[in-house]
Amino acid sequence: MRHTIWIAGLLTGLALLGTGCGGRSVEGSSEPAKVEKVGGRAGVVLTAEAAKRLGVETARVRNGQGARTVIPFAAVLYDPDGATWTYTSPKPLVYVRKNISVDRIDGNRAILKSGPPSGTPVVTVGATEIWGVEYGGIEED
Fold first, then answer.
1. With bands split at pLDDT 50, 70 and 90, how would you rate the model's confidence at 8?
2. With bands split at pLDDT 50, 70 and 90, how would you rate the model's confidence at 138?
3. What does the H/E/C string look like for the chain?
4. pLDDT tier, 78 (very low <50, low <70, confident <90, very high otherwise)
5. Residue 108 near residue 91 (C-beta atoms within 8 A)
6. Distance (Å, rounded) from C-alpha 60 to C-alpha 65?
7. Would you say 89 and 71 are in contact if contact means Cβ atoms under 8 Å apart?
8. Domains of the chain and any CATH numbers
């Protein structure tokens, strides 16, 4: 009996997991993520549930020494060509990719030559998933 309950629970969990991974929405519900123009640039808008499932976290850009600004190293992303960028969050659940120029990495901090101004929230967790939404075309095996 216990074995049967365990298998039923496992099958139910797998079914629920499968509904969240297919990239389709349930009829009548909104898409968990979409790409739209934000201030003239492509931005990603997530539902609160999508942001929670992705574990999106942000931190604010801080002032460094001189005219430099500082972001957590976790907020620095590299594209295939080696260019650096980060995702800013101009409003809750909205994420816009921003090119940055890194002066140096100091432990878990990136000191920037150029980038978003002090006080701007940048994504420290979940940025690669947001990138996947922005660029699309990613299919599961």
1. very low
2. low
3. CHHHHHHHHHHHHHHHHHHHHCCCCCCCCCCCEEEEEECCEEEEEECHHHHHHHCCEEEECEECCCCCEEEEHHHCEECCCCCEEEEEEEECCEEEEEECEEEEEECCEEEEEECCCCCCEEEEECHHHHHHHHHCCCCCC
4. very high
5. no
6. 16
7. no
8. 31-135 (2.40.420.20)
Q: What is the pLDDT of residues 82-105, one digit of tens each?
A: 999 999 999 999 999 999 999 999
Alpha-carbon torsion, ordered 22, 26, 57, 104, to 10 deg: 40
Strands 94-99 and 33-38 turn out to be: unpaired
Task: Please give the single-letter amino acid code of residue 5.
Answer: I
Q: Which two tokens stand for residue 44?
A: 């990603």
